[in-house]
Design goal:
With 71 residues, this protein is an all-alpha fold. It is 32% helix and 0% strand.
């Protein structure tokens, strides 16, 4: 297994990772955290607000097809 921890806020930010997973025969599994967990990186509030504004929920519906499991 491979784990990638990132703050994807749009589907376009996630696409390259899905593509790489498919190319190498991995099935992506996305964990969507829904609560406020705080900020351990001291990101300025204006950056966090910008991320919240562009947030696209429902990553679990992201369309992908693993080559190994393709019909």
């Amino acid at each position: 297994p491979i784990a990638i921890h990132n703050t994807f806020t749009t589907r376009d930010e996630l696409k390259p990772y899905i593509k790489i997973a498919e190319e190498y025969g991995y099935t992506p599994f996305i964990i969507h955290c829904e609560n406020a967990y705080g900020d351990c990186h001291k990101v300025p509030i204006e950056h966090l607000e910008a991320m919240w504004k562009r947030w696209q929920p429902r990553f679990h519906e992201f369309p992908y097809k693993n080559k190994k499991n393709a019909a």
